[in-house]
Amino acid sequence: MKSLVLERKDELSLRDFPAIDRVEETLGPRDVRIRLHTVGICGSDVHYYTHGRIGPFVVNEPMILGHEASGTVIETGAEVTTLTVGDRVCMEPGIPDPNSRATRLGMYNIDPAVRFWATPPVHGILRPTCVHPEGFTFKLPDTVSFAEAAMVEPLAVGVHAATKARVKPGDIGVVLGAGPIGLVTALSALAAGCARVYVSDLSEKKLEIAESLSPAITGVAVPGGDLVARVKAETGGWGADVVFEATGSPAAAAQVFEPLAPGGCVVMIGGQPDPIRYDAGAAMVREARVENIFRYAHVFPRCVAMLASGAIDVKPLITRTFAFDDSVRAFEIAASAPPADVKMQIELPQ
Ligand SMILES: [Zn+2]
Known about the structure:
Layout: E1 2-8, E2 11-16, E3 31-40, H1 43-51, E4 53-54, E5 57-58, E6 63-64, E7 68-76, E8 88-91, E9 94-95, H2 101-104, E10 115-116, E11 129-133, E12 137-139, H3 146-149, H4 152-165, E13 172-176, H5 180-192, E14 196-201, H6 204-213, E15 217-221, H7 227-233, E16 240-245, H8 250-254, E17 260-268, H9 280-285, E18 289-292, H10 300-309, E19 318-323, H11 327-335, E20 343-347
Parallel strand pairs: 13-14, 13-16, 14-15, 16-17, 17-18, 19-20
Antiparallel strand pairs: 1-2, 1-6, 3-7, 3-11, 3-20, 4-5, 7-8, 8-12, 9-10
Helix pairs in contact: 4-5, 4-10
The protein binds zinc ion.
Protein backbone atom coordinates (compact mmCIF):
# COMPACT_ATOMS: atom_id res chain seq x y z
CA MET A 1 0.00 0.00 0.00
CA LYS A 2 1.49 3.32 -1.09
CA SER A 3 1.90 5.36 2.07
CA LEU A 4 3.55 8.58 3.24
CA VAL A 5 6.39 7.26 5.38
CA LEU A 6 8.60 9.24 7.74
CA GLU A 7 11.78 7.18 7.31
CA ARG A 8 13.67 9.19 9.89
CA LYS A 9 13.98 12.85 10.90
CA ASP A 10 13.95 15.10 7.77
CA GLU A 11 13.30 12.19 5.39
CA LEU A 12 9.88 11.41 3.93
CA SER A 13 9.02 9.03 1.14
CA LEU A 14 5.88 8.03 -0.67
CA ARG A 15 6.35 4.31 -1.06
CA ASP A 16 4.82 0.91 -0.72
CA PHE A 17 4.53 0.01 2.94
CA PRO A 18 3.67 -3.66 3.46
CA ALA A 19 0.49 -4.33 5.46
CA ILE A 20 2.36 -7.03 7.33
CA ASP A 21 4.27 -4.28 9.11
CA ARG A 22 1.03 -2.99 10.61
CA VAL A 23 -0.83 -5.01 13.17
CA GLU A 24 -4.15 -3.24 12.76
CA GLU A 25 -5.05 -4.48 9.25
CA THR A 26 -7.21 -7.40 10.38
CA LEU A 27 -10.91 -6.54 10.47
CA GLY A 28 -12.32 -7.46 13.90
CA PRO A 29 -16.06 -8.01 14.47
CA ARG A 30 -16.56 -4.43 15.80
CA ASP A 31 -14.25 -2.77 13.22
CA VAL A 32 -14.80 -1.09 9.90
CA ARG A 33 -12.44 -0.79 6.97
CA ILE A 34 -12.24 2.74 5.59
CA ARG A 35 -10.97 4.16 2.32
CA LEU A 36 -9.23 7.41 3.31
CA HIS A 37 -10.37 10.54 1.49
CA THR A 38 -8.88 13.64 3.15
CA VAL A 39 -6.08 13.92 5.70
CA GLY A 40 -5.05 17.19 7.37
CA ILE A 41 -1.42 17.99 8.05
CA CYS A 42 -1.06 18.59 11.78
CA GLY A 43 1.66 20.50 13.60
CA SER A 44 2.55 17.23 15.31
CA ASP A 45 3.10 15.45 11.95
CA VAL A 46 5.37 18.30 10.89
CA HIS A 47 7.20 18.22 14.23
CA TYR A 48 7.96 14.50 13.87
CA TYR A 49 9.23 15.25 10.35
CA THR A 50 11.50 18.11 11.41
CA HIS A 51 12.55 16.87 14.88
CA GLY A 52 12.08 13.09 14.80
CA ARG A 53 10.36 13.20 18.17
CA ILE A 54 7.82 14.93 20.39
CA GLY A 55 8.86 14.75 24.03
CA PRO A 56 9.08 11.07 25.00
CA PHE A 57 7.70 9.85 21.64
CA VAL A 58 10.66 9.10 19.35
CA VAL A 59 10.55 7.92 15.73
CA ASN A 60 12.93 4.96 15.88
CA GLU A 61 11.67 3.19 12.79
CA PRO A 62 9.78 4.21 9.64
CA MET A 63 6.30 5.50 10.54
CA ILE A 64 3.32 6.48 8.39
CA LEU A 65 2.18 10.05 9.20
CA GLY A 66 -1.31 11.57 9.46
CA HIS A 67 -4.13 11.48 12.00
CA GLU A 68 -6.77 14.07 10.94
CA ALA A 69 -8.93 12.04 8.61
CA SER A 70 -12.18 11.41 6.82
CA GLY A 71 -13.15 8.66 4.41
CA THR A 72 -15.71 6.09 3.32
CA VAL A 73 -16.59 2.77 4.93
CA ILE A 74 -15.77 -0.07 2.51
CA GLU A 75 -16.21 -3.11 4.77
CA THR A 76 -17.86 -3.78 8.13
CA GLY A 77 -17.13 -6.39 10.80
CA ALA A 78 -19.77 -9.01 11.61
CA GLU A 79 -21.06 -7.22 14.74
CA VAL A 80 -21.08 -3.63 13.42
CA THR A 81 -24.58 -2.13 13.71
CA THR A 82 -24.28 1.64 13.30
CA LEU A 83 -22.31 1.91 10.06
CA THR A 84 -22.73 0.44 6.60
CA VAL A 85 -20.63 0.23 3.45
CA GLY A 86 -20.69 3.58 1.67
CA ASP A 87 -21.09 5.70 4.80
CA ARG A 88 -18.96 8.84 4.81
CA VAL A 89 -17.16 9.13 8.15
CA CYS A 90 -14.51 10.85 10.21
CA MET A 91 -12.36 9.00 12.68
CA GLU A 92 -11.10 9.69 16.15
CA PRO A 93 -7.39 8.78 16.04
CA GLY A 94 -6.78 7.68 19.65
CA ILE A 95 -7.95 4.25 20.78
CA PRO A 96 -7.76 3.63 24.52
CA ASP A 97 -7.80 0.30 26.31
CA PRO A 98 -11.56 -0.07 27.00
CA ASN A 99 -10.86 -1.75 30.35
CA SER A 100 -8.24 0.66 31.62
CA ARG A 101 -8.75 2.59 34.82
CA ALA A 102 -8.61 5.92 32.92
CA THR A 103 -11.29 4.77 30.47
CA ARG A 104 -13.58 3.61 33.25
CA LEU A 105 -13.12 7.00 34.94
CA GLY A 106 -14.22 8.74 31.73
CA MET A 107 -10.76 10.11 30.95
CA TYR A 108 -9.77 7.78 28.14
CA ASN A 109 -7.68 10.45 26.41
CA ILE A 110 -5.16 10.27 29.26
CA ASP A 111 -5.11 6.48 29.35
CA PRO A 112 -1.38 5.69 29.31
CA ALA A 113 -2.20 2.76 27.00
CA VAL A 114 -3.98 4.89 24.36
CA ARG A 115 -2.87 4.08 20.80
CA PHE A 116 -2.92 7.27 18.73
CA TRP A 117 -2.31 7.43 14.98
CA ALA A 118 1.11 8.72 13.93
CA THR A 119 2.47 8.65 17.47
CA PRO A 120 5.34 6.15 17.65
CA PRO A 121 5.06 3.20 17.47
CA VAL A 122 1.54 3.54 15.98
CA HIS A 123 1.24 4.27 12.24
CA GLY A 124 -0.84 7.12 10.86
CA ILE A 125 -3.29 7.05 7.97
CA LEU A 126 -1.66 8.78 4.99
CA ARG A 127 -2.35 5.55 3.09
CA PRO A 128 -5.25 4.24 1.00
CA THR A 129 -7.17 2.30 3.67
CA CYS A 130 -7.24 1.62 7.40
CA VAL A 131 -9.14 -0.51 9.90
CA HIS A 132 -10.77 1.32 12.81
CA PRO A 133 -13.19 0.52 15.66
CA GLU A 134 -16.85 1.32 14.92
CA GLY A 135 -17.09 3.24 18.21
CA PHE A 136 -14.40 5.71 17.13
CA THR A 137 -15.81 6.20 13.62
CA PHE A 138 -18.48 8.87 13.14
CA LYS A 139 -20.98 9.06 10.31
CA LEU A 140 -21.19 12.38 8.48
CA PRO A 141 -24.35 14.13 7.35
CA ASP A 142 -24.42 14.86 3.59
CA THR A 143 -23.90 18.56 4.31
CA VAL A 144 -20.46 18.03 5.88
CA SER A 145 -17.71 17.66 3.28
CA PHE A 146 -14.72 15.33 3.59
CA ALA A 147 -12.48 18.40 3.94
CA GLU A 148 -14.55 19.78 6.84
CA ALA A 149 -14.73 16.32 8.41
CA ALA A 150 -10.93 16.07 8.40
CA MET A 151 -11.01 19.28 10.51
CA VAL A 152 -13.01 17.58 13.26
CA GLU A 153 -9.85 16.28 14.93
CA PRO A 154 -8.23 19.69 15.52
CA LEU A 155 -11.66 21.22 16.22
CA ALA A 156 -12.15 18.61 18.95
CA VAL A 157 -9.19 20.15 20.82
CA GLY A 158 -10.87 23.57 20.80
CA VAL A 159 -14.22 22.13 21.87
CA HIS A 160 -12.58 20.17 24.69
CA ALA A 161 -10.76 23.35 25.81
CA ALA A 162 -13.96 25.44 25.81
CA THR A 163 -15.73 22.66 27.72
CA LYS A 164 -12.98 22.50 30.36
CA ALA A 165 -13.10 26.30 30.64
CA ARG A 166 -16.86 26.10 31.39
CA VAL A 167 -17.53 29.09 29.15
CA LYS A 168 -20.77 30.90 29.98
CA PRO A 169 -22.89 33.02 27.62
CA GLY A 170 -21.43 36.51 27.43
CA ASP A 171 -17.94 35.59 28.65
CA ILE A 172 -14.95 37.44 27.28
CA GLY A 173 -12.26 35.13 25.96
CA VAL A 174 -8.62 35.50 25.02
CA VAL A 175 -6.78 33.05 22.80
CA LEU A 176 -3.01 33.32 22.69
CA GLY A 177 -1.89 32.08 19.27
CA ALA A 178 -3.67 32.12 15.89
CA GLY A 179 -2.44 28.81 14.53
CA PRO A 180 -4.98 26.13 13.59
CA ILE A 181 -5.56 25.15 17.23
CA GLY A 182 -5.84 28.78 18.38
CA LEU A 183 -8.41 29.48 15.68
CA VAL A 184 -10.54 26.39 16.33
CA THR A 185 -10.39 27.31 20.01
CA ALA A 186 -11.64 30.83 19.24
CA LEU A 187 -14.50 29.36 17.17
CA SER A 188 -15.32 26.87 19.94
CA ALA A 189 -15.27 29.59 22.61
CA LEU A 190 -17.73 31.65 20.55
CA ALA A 191 -19.94 28.61 19.95
CA ALA A 192 -19.86 27.97 23.70
CA GLY A 193 -21.17 31.48 24.34
CA CYS A 194 -18.31 33.97 24.45
CA ALA A 195 -19.46 37.47 23.51
CA ARG A 196 -16.01 38.39 22.22
CA VAL A 197 -12.72 36.59 21.76
CA TYR A 198 -9.41 38.45 21.50
CA VAL A 199 -6.83 36.47 19.52
CA SER A 200 -3.17 37.44 19.72
CA ASP A 201 -0.34 36.40 17.42
CA LEU A 202 2.98 37.60 16.03
CA SER A 203 1.71 37.32 12.45
CA GLU A 204 -0.49 40.09 11.05
CA LYS A 205 -1.63 37.71 8.32
CA LYS A 206 -2.85 35.16 10.88
CA LEU A 207 -4.73 37.91 12.73
CA GLU A 208 -6.40 38.95 9.48
CA ILE A 209 -7.56 35.36 9.02
CA ALA A 210 -8.76 35.25 12.65
CA GLU A 211 -10.82 38.43 12.25
CA SER A 212 -12.32 37.16 9.00
CA LEU A 213 -13.87 34.23 10.89
CA SER A 214 -16.32 36.25 12.96
CA PRO A 215 -17.17 39.87 13.80
CA ALA A 216 -16.85 38.76 17.45
CA ILE A 217 -13.12 38.04 17.04
CA THR A 218 -10.63 40.86 17.62
CA GLY A 219 -7.03 40.34 16.50
CA VAL A 220 -4.29 41.83 18.68
CA ALA A 221 -0.72 41.98 17.38
CA VAL A 222 2.19 40.85 19.53
CA PRO A 223 4.22 42.87 20.20
CA GLY A 224 2.64 46.27 19.89
CA GLY A 225 -1.07 45.57 20.31
CA ASP A 226 -0.81 45.54 24.12
CA LEU A 227 -3.27 42.73 24.68
CA VAL A 228 -3.60 43.28 28.43
CA ALA A 229 -4.31 47.02 28.14
CA ARG A 230 -6.77 46.39 25.31
CA VAL A 231 -8.73 43.70 27.15
CA LYS A 232 -8.76 45.70 30.39
CA ALA A 233 -9.86 48.88 28.57
CA GLU A 234 -12.74 47.06 26.90
CA THR A 235 -13.91 45.22 30.04
CA GLY A 236 -14.03 48.19 32.42
CA GLY A 237 -10.67 47.18 33.88
CA TRP A 238 -11.91 43.68 34.83
CA GLY A 239 -10.15 41.40 32.32
CA ALA A 240 -11.09 38.27 30.40
CA ASP A 241 -13.12 35.44 31.92
CA VAL A 242 -11.11 32.80 30.09
CA VAL A 243 -7.59 32.79 28.64
CA PHE A 244 -6.60 29.94 26.33
CA GLU A 245 -2.85 29.40 25.85
CA ALA A 246 -2.49 27.98 22.33
CA THR A 247 1.02 29.05 21.33
CA GLY A 248 3.16 26.49 23.13
CA SER A 249 5.56 29.38 23.70
CA PRO A 250 7.15 29.63 27.17
CA ALA A 251 7.13 33.45 26.86
CA ALA A 252 3.37 33.51 26.29
CA ALA A 253 2.74 30.99 29.06
CA ALA A 254 4.73 33.12 31.51
CA GLN A 255 2.20 35.96 31.11
CA VAL A 256 -0.95 33.96 30.76
CA PHE A 257 -2.65 35.40 33.87
CA GLU A 258 -2.12 39.07 32.98
CA PRO A 259 -5.28 39.54 30.89
CA LEU A 260 -7.34 37.30 33.20
CA ALA A 261 -10.20 38.62 35.33
CA PRO A 262 -10.48 37.76 39.03
CA GLY A 263 -12.00 34.30 39.36
CA GLY A 264 -11.23 33.52 35.73
CA CYS A 265 -9.92 30.39 34.09
CA VAL A 266 -6.74 29.68 32.16
CA VAL A 267 -6.64 26.68 29.84
CA MET A 268 -3.23 25.40 28.79
CA ILE A 269 -3.52 23.89 25.30
CA GLY A 270 -0.26 24.54 23.45
CA GLY A 271 2.24 21.69 23.78
CA GLN A 272 5.14 22.65 26.03
CA PRO A 273 7.98 20.22 25.41
CA ASP A 274 10.11 21.77 28.15
CA PRO A 275 9.34 22.86 31.70
CA ILE A 276 7.84 26.36 31.80
CA ARG A 277 7.42 29.04 34.43
CA TYR A 278 4.22 30.85 35.09
CA ASP A 279 3.38 33.46 37.65
CA ALA A 280 1.70 31.56 40.50
CA GLY A 281 1.31 34.80 42.47
CA ALA A 282 -0.69 36.36 39.63
CA ALA A 283 -2.86 33.23 39.63
CA MET A 284 -3.39 33.39 43.40
CA VAL A 285 -4.53 37.01 43.62
CA ARG A 286 -7.16 36.16 41.01
CA GLU A 287 -8.05 32.76 42.52
CA ALA A 288 -7.57 31.61 38.93
CA ARG A 289 -8.65 28.14 37.91
CA VAL A 290 -6.09 26.45 35.67
CA GLU A 291 -7.06 23.62 33.35
CA ASN A 292 -4.65 21.53 31.32
CA ILE A 293 -5.88 19.58 28.34
CA PHE A 294 -4.50 16.65 26.41
CA ARG A 295 -6.28 16.07 23.10
CA TYR A 296 -10.02 15.47 23.89
CA ALA A 297 -12.47 12.86 25.10
CA HIS A 298 -15.62 12.02 23.16
CA VAL A 299 -16.38 15.35 21.53
CA PHE A 300 -16.36 14.19 17.88
CA PRO A 301 -20.17 13.84 17.73
CA ARG A 302 -20.55 17.41 19.04
CA CYS A 303 -18.07 18.69 16.47
CA VAL A 304 -19.85 16.94 13.59
CA ALA A 305 -23.19 18.31 14.84
CA MET A 306 -21.84 21.87 14.95
CA LEU A 307 -20.39 21.61 11.44
CA ALA A 308 -23.70 20.23 10.21
CA SER A 309 -25.78 22.98 11.82
CA GLY A 310 -23.43 25.80 10.83
CA ALA A 311 -22.74 26.68 14.49
CA ILE A 312 -19.07 26.39 13.53
CA ASP A 313 -17.60 26.91 10.07
CA VAL A 314 -14.09 25.55 9.58
CA LYS A 315 -13.97 26.01 5.79
CA PRO A 316 -12.03 29.32 5.95
CA LEU A 317 -9.28 27.51 7.88
CA ILE A 318 -8.55 25.11 5.02
CA THR A 319 -6.13 27.16 2.96
CA ARG A 320 -4.43 24.59 0.68
CA THR A 321 -5.16 21.12 -0.65
CA PHE A 322 -2.59 18.76 -2.19
CA ALA A 323 -2.92 15.51 -4.11
CA PHE A 324 -1.57 12.44 -2.31
CA ASP A 325 1.22 12.14 -4.89
CA ASP A 326 2.35 15.61 -3.80
CA SER A 327 2.45 14.75 -0.07
CA VAL A 328 6.20 15.09 0.35
CA ARG A 329 6.09 18.57 -1.17
CA ALA A 330 3.06 19.37 1.00
CA PHE A 331 5.06 18.53 4.11
CA GLU A 332 8.06 20.56 2.92
CA ILE A 333 5.76 23.56 2.47
CA ALA A 334 4.05 22.93 5.82
CA ALA A 335 7.46 22.75 7.52
CA SER A 336 8.27 26.23 6.19
CA ALA A 337 5.15 27.52 8.01
CA PRO A 338 3.80 29.94 5.40
CA PRO A 339 2.09 32.79 7.29
CA ALA A 340 -0.96 32.83 5.00
CA ASP A 341 -1.76 29.16 5.60
CA VAL A 342 -3.77 27.71 8.45
CA LYS A 343 -4.62 24.10 7.59
CA MET A 344 -3.18 22.19 4.64
CA GLN A 345 -4.86 18.95 3.62
CA ILE A 346 -4.02 16.01 1.41
CA GLU A 347 -6.61 14.24 -0.74
CA LEU A 348 -6.19 10.56 -1.50
CA PRO A 349 -7.15 9.08 -4.84
CA GLN A 350 -10.64 7.48 -4.69
ZN1 LIG B 1 -3.86 17.05 14.85
